[in-house]
Prior knowledge:
Layout (H helix, E strand, L loop, with lengths): L9 H8 L10 E4 L7 E4 L5 E8 L7 E4 L31 E5 L1
Antiparallel strand pairs: 1-2, 3-4, 3-5
Amino acid sequence: MTSQLRTITVRELRDLLEDQDDNALVIFTANYGDYHRTSQALPLKGEVEEGTVAKSAYSNSGFELVQDDEDPDNEGECADCGSIDDEPHTKDCSRAQKYLVIR
């Protein structure tokens, strides 16, 4: 079974925010991964950049944001980078999926 990174598009994000107060404060949340599944609040700096996502055996989500100077934790079958089928490719692979990263 192929693991997929579930996300939304910029258009879907705009649609979600369309009826919201322009002055409302925004945070993102992530599951802390503890027994009680604590939802941690993540602050935002208001910065957007493009990033590459790769598979990771280390991350609870199964994915990591690859920094330019890092090698992703990858085990797979792509001839270029080792990814399996349609799973995310490594940052150096010509088929790597780029995402907008909001910090």
